[in-house]
Amino acid sequence: MKLLKDRILRDGKSFEGGILKVDSFINHQMDPILMKSIGVEFVRRFGHLPINKIVTIEASGIAPAIMLGYLLELPVVFVKKAVPKTMENMLTASVYSFTKDKTYDICVSRDFLTADDRVVFIDDFLANGNAAIGVHELVEKAGAQVLGMGFIIEKSFQQGHLRLRELNIPIESLARVKTLGNNKVEFED
Ligand code: 5GP
User: Fold this and answer.
1) Closest ligand 1 atom, CA of 160?
2) Which end of the chain is more exposed for a tag (fewer CB within 10 A), N or C?
3) Domain spanning 2-187 has what CATH number?
4) From the CB of 14, is ligand 1 less than 6 Å away?
5) 8 Å CB contact between 38 and 67
């Protein structure tokens, strides 16, 4: 997606350790016009699938997931990263965070994810695939099915795409970053 790649080149910041910072337009301050275009692109890639729900994980997956849900007129469920005391019928899984270097529990209520659901999972980044694999596990525990996974940015030099391919689910990434250097970003073709 050219618009997105141009924006990453203009406003993204890359750091040692393979981190790309996009907090001026995705992760902290957000550009809703770009986010709408991202939603439109996800519709182009997933609109043909027989889904009834979008699933994401808080916090940065929520904006693109809502754009997609709005355009397809489907509900959006966000998996939580902190386990609330008040949640009923809770399902949980463990996820290792690459950026925070720690393992945490994620959860969702069975009230909003059931065996009738066919979902697309949306997130901001695909790095090592841990968040996506954790959410996939939750969806399976609910008896639901993931029919597609979409990421705004994939870091193809990490293991996520390879690991997710084993799930045999279509994966769509709108910008695939091949290398990240000191303020240098290169994309896959
Ligand atoms: P994974 O679970 O695929 O290893 O990592 C994906 C999650 O880690 C994303 O939800 C995202 O929040 C965070 N993440 C991974 N790499 C980056 C990065 O380079 N920049 C930012 N901003 N977040 C990242």
Assistant:
1) 3
2) C
3) 3.40.50.2020
4) no
5) yes
| Spatial separation of the C-alpha atoms in residues 126 and 149, rounded to whole Å | 10
What are the distances in angstroms from CA 69 to CA 46, 152, 182? 11, 15, 36
- Average pLDDT of the residues in 35-44: 98
> Ligand 1 pocket check: which of 125, 135, 151, 156 to mutate, most ligand atoms within 8 Å of Cβ?
125
Q: Is this complex's ipTM strictly greater than 0.90?
A: yes
Q: What is the residue whose two structure tokens read 């699933």? A: 55
The alpha carbon of 19 and the centre of ligand 1 are apart by a number of angstroms equal to 8
For residue range 63-101, what is the model confidence (pLDDT) as tens digits? 999 999 999 999 999 999 988 778 778 999 999 887 778
Provide the whole-model pTM: 0.96
Distance, first Cα to last Cα, the chain: 11
Distance from Cα 73 to the centre of ligand 1, integer Å: 27
Tokens of 107: 């959860």
